[in-house]
Here is the input.
Amino acid sequence: MKSDHEEGAPRFYVATPQEIREGKTTDIYFVRTHEIIEKKNLDRHVKAEFIAKGFHDDWPWAVFSGLEEILSLVEGLPLTIRAVPEGTVFRSYEPVMEIEGNYQDFCLLETAILGLMCQSSGVATKAARCKKAAGERPVLSFGARRVHPALTPMVDRSAYIGGCDGISAVKGAELLDVVPTGTMPHALILLFGDTVEAAEAFNEIVDPKVGRVVLIDTFNDEKFEAIRLAEALREKLYAIRLDTPSSRRGNFPRMIEEIRWELDIRGFSHVKIFVSGGMNEDKIRQLNPYVDAYGVGTAISNAPVVDFSMDIIEIEGKPFAKKGKMSGSKQVFRCTRCLQEQVVFLGTGVEDLTCDCGGTLEPILNPVMVDGKTTVALQHPREIRGYVLSQLEHFEL
Ligand SMILES: [Zn+2]
Here is the structure.
């Protein structure tokens, strides 16, 4: 396989940011389309919108993510873009973004724009679902090992803005300006040959600011291991972690309840119980009465994508769209109280609309780029995450 490989660097099958901007990751049919339009002098000023007609497993909503990367990708091109804020919880058929410009100027980027949007939104949505299930209890994203490492920062960012309280990989944490979170791998305990010895070494060597969270499922019965650890580390033991609970399907909640009981009656109520391994929103709901925090891997990092599509809805100022698709440029009004939205033809005034709850409606599909210049301040992921969490109160799983 041919590649422009930098001497001495690892040889990975990834496109560079520049190659993506040049259209190297486009589907070939857009290359052919571009050529035909060019030769037939058919370029037109269009508006194209991005919607999802439905979500994986009939989920009722999703989280919009990827906007910052998309704006960066198309920066400098003669395009005007309106979008809902990154982190908006939206429903099917609700436009999240609209590009306006000459078709030829973004034809070769449709594949990349959709890829950025679909995957990031999928991860953010799954993270939000897990966080919704966990409520106040922390959800940590541990899925770096399940994706191509080149994508880890994107996955971590999306998981974090979707609502995860922490992420595990170093590079993602750097970009997010958060402290990466993690406990200890089975390998550490195996090399010591004993859980308590490994925990004591961890306690001796690792920065005291890092919570002492010890894996208890390497060798012996989890209950007796938890008690032995608590008695050895006492107040220094922050939490115990149970990993790979899928091998104990059925009686797992019961086992955790039992461990909680045994710790409590010995005066170790401060020791929290963390669970990881095969976690998802359904398991979190089941375990939430007994568990204090969750490590979620594959479910978030390899979340089903949101199937956005891009469709032309206006050509040279006139509403025009394929069958099965409502033409015309639209606005999304959202009620600030109940978060129900109304999708209307652009130009419909807010004075013509009301919400059943009596709340105030506001337009949320607003300009974010004009003639290739980003016109909104980019938000810190922490703020986007806060926006997601504030909306989740109004949405059910
Ligand atoms: Zn309302």
Observations:
- The mean pLDDT is 95.
